[in-house]
Specification:
- The protein is about 30% helix and about 25% strand.
- The strands form four sheets. Strands 3, 4, 5, 8, 9, 16 and 17 form a seven-stranded mixed β-sheet that branches.
- Strand 13, helix 9 and strand 14 form a beta-alpha-beta unit.
- Helix 5 crosses helix 6.
- It is globular, with a radius of gyration of 20 Å.
- One zinc ion binds next to helix 2.
């Protein structure tokens, strides 16, 4: 089969490799689409501490079951189309026992512990069948869109934790694909107003299509002042940082209304992870800082439902589709910031039919 093999940082290409064996208790999927994630770009550039090269990455997968292994006990049958997230929970730690799978202390990931989905076929291990993030693709949903349920699931978790609701003004700092999803979700949850900010005009223009009430170019205007102005001086009930820039966390605290919630969604670079937050503002304004990362299976179910009924316009988020053979070209465009969300199709001729 054809697969993207990453040999070393910035050394990768589409190669012929053997089709994986169908694992005992697991499944073999024919990959329909695999989404390119910001974390994939980082791995392509720098490698990854949990990935031993050479390796096949790609963790936002949709595909059809073409085989099941011996002693297979899962609910999915041959011919069914699945959306597969990467995380496989341990099922044994306190957090798994409590149903807070997103906090699992010993999770593993497809594309790290097992080869990933930038390939024509991917093996789904028995552990993932029991404890993974796998859902049926809802009827009528484009499988290329279903592939990107994973990042959306993390956003669903975040806004659930932030209890975004009817009377909230929500600021989303960062108008990349994640920021655009947060805009849609805030809308779907009934937010009173949504403000999206970025420093790149091109990104703001792409984000406009997702219906924020206000777009702020934070390179030109003082974002804190602008949010204060748009909220009658009071600040926003919810601020979401959807970017890796430490200063935006400082700003988020400054633009939050009294009693507001700050969702720290984007991780920061390791050596810049201690921004100078004004903790007195947190204290005296009774703010809630909410750290949020990954998701549990129920968030993935919600994400697929939102994609299926159009409340998250997946067709608009997937800005680029490439045959897997054009992986290098797609990655180049993504590095250049030309792409909102790219998916790669390992069987493009069949996808057309
Ligand atoms: Zn991802
Ligand atoms: Zn666990």
């Amino acid at each position: 089969m054809r697969a993207v093999v990453v040999n070393a940082p910035m050394d990768f290409g589409v190669r012929d490799v053997p089709v994986p064996l169908c694992p005992d208790g697991g499944m073999l999927l024919k990959v329909h689409a695999c989404g390119l994630c910001g974390s994939d770009l980082r791995t392509l550039r720098y490698g990854h501490r949990r990935v031993t090269l050479p390796w096949i990455i790609g963790h936002e997968i949709s595909g059809t079951v073409v085989g099941t292994g011996s002693d297979y006990g899962g609910p999915w049958r041959e011919g069914e189309m699945l959306s597969v997230g990467p995380v496989v929970y341990c099922g044994r730690c306190d957090f798994c026992a409590a149903g807070r799978f997103e906090l699992c202390e010993d999770y593993r990931e497809i594309a790290q512990a097992w080869p990933g989905g930038f390939a024509q076929y991917v093996a789904i291990p028995e552990e993932a069948v029991r404890l993974g993030t796998i859902q049926h693709v809802p009827p009528g949903l484009d499988p290329a869109v279903a592939a990107i349920a994973e990042p959306i699931s993390s956003c669903v978790n975040a806004q659930e934790r932030g209890a975004v609701g009817l009377t909230d003004t929500v600021v989303v700092i960062g108008a990349g694909p994640i920021g655009c999803v947060h805009v849609c979700l805030a809308r779907a949850r009934g937010a009173a107003a949504v403000i999206a900010a970025d420093v790149l005009p091109g990104r703001l223009e792409l984000c406009r299509r997702f219906g924020p009430d206000h777009l702020v170019n934070a390179a030109e205007a003082d974002l804190v002042e602008e949010v204060k102005r748009l909220t009658g001086g009071k600040g926003a009930e919810v601020v979401i940082t959807a970017n890796p820039v430490p200063e935006t966390q400082v700003q988020a605290v400054e633009m939050a209304r009294k009693g507001g919630r700050v969702l720290l969604f984007g991780g920061l670079p390791k050596d810049r992870s201690r921004p100078g937050l004004d903790m007195n503002a947190v204290h005296y304004n009774a703010l809630t800082l909410i750290g949020t990362t990954t998701f549990a299976p129920r968030h993935q179910m919600t994400a697929l439902r939102l994609l299926a009924d159009g409340r998250i316009p997946g067709e608009r988020l997937v800005s680029h589709r490439f045959p897997l053979e054009d992986f290098a070209e797609g990655v180049r465009l993504a590095f250049e910031g030309e792409v909102l969300k790219a998916v790669f199709l390992p069987h493009p001729d069949e996808a057309e039919a």
